[in-house]
């Protein structure tokens, strides 16, 4: 979309948005843009001190903006349930942006619930959070759920025999699998929401290659980190530009469920928001349905609100 920027975002007054991972990088850029447009924004963060600094930055740019900080650790199902119990009491949630993520950890680590940490943070956490907030989302007039995926999903494969990387761990493989899971979940959610006759829109977006500080959090070696950041500087774009496809998917009229948005430049590395390419693995409905069932089992979260909507 040539020339698109946040000035093109429709007025968001009266809408409530939850943005996970909103203390830095893409998350704070997305939250800031939504607040500028009048939305009530919840910064869903693991580190409350960092969240308060992000809130102060947003308020400095937009005095009087409606912005709050609420703690959630997406690698801890108890934390997710506590967050959903608080925030799910709102009259409605219009927008949920599942942005928080963990990338390419060189050593296998586990979540509070014993799951591989990247899979837990990047997929199981958002799956559980969305399911628990679904009743509040369905109370909104035009709710959207946006999953933030990655071009790395194209190298992903769902290894049902070793979802947790317990037998053979690779940080890159685990990350790619988690990002593919984001797409499979988002598209399956859209199909199920449609089948239930709801007005929920589930879409996916990716930021291309963006300078967000994400690489610094991967725990790669110092030299690898330096080289990776150098390449991002050459091939990528800044965090504000990376947030554009996410904001487009979240706010623009004409966006429909099941779409995937990313930058329109070479290899989708940078550029203006445009329809992006989903790998054949990401379009596999059988794998998506199996992953959904496995995610319900692992998290203990079911999407009963969709069953209730279908029965109504």
Q: Would you kindly provide a written description of the structure presented here, covering whatever features stand out?
A:
The chain has 312 residues and is of the alpha/beta class. The chain is built from nine helices and ten strands. An eight-stranded mixed β-sheet has the order 3-2-1-4-5-6-9-10, with helices on both faces. Helix 4 links the parallel strand 4 and strand 5. Helix 1 packs parallel to helix 2, helix 1 packs across helix 7 and helix 3 runs parallel beside helix 4. The radius of gyration is 18 Å and the shape is globular. The N and C termini lie far apart (39 Å).
- Rg to the nearest angstrom? 18 Å
> How much beta, percentage-wise?
5-15%
N to C succession of SSEs: EHEHEHEHEHEEHEHEEHH
Mean model confidence by pLDDT? 92
Number of helical regions:
9
The secondary-structure class comes to alpha/beta
What is the topology?
Elements: E1 16-20, H1 25-36, E2 40-45, H2 48-61, E3 67-71, H3 77-87, E4 95-98, H4 117-138, E5 144-148, H5 171-195, E6 201-205, E7 210-211, H6 222-235, E8 237-238, H7 239-251, E9 260-263, E10 273-275, H8 285-299, H9 304-311
Parallel strand pairs: 1-2, 1-4, 2-3, 4-5, 5-6, 6-9, 7-8
Antiparallel strand pairs: 9-10
Helix pairs in contact: 1-2, 1-7, 3-4, 4-5, 4-8, 5-8
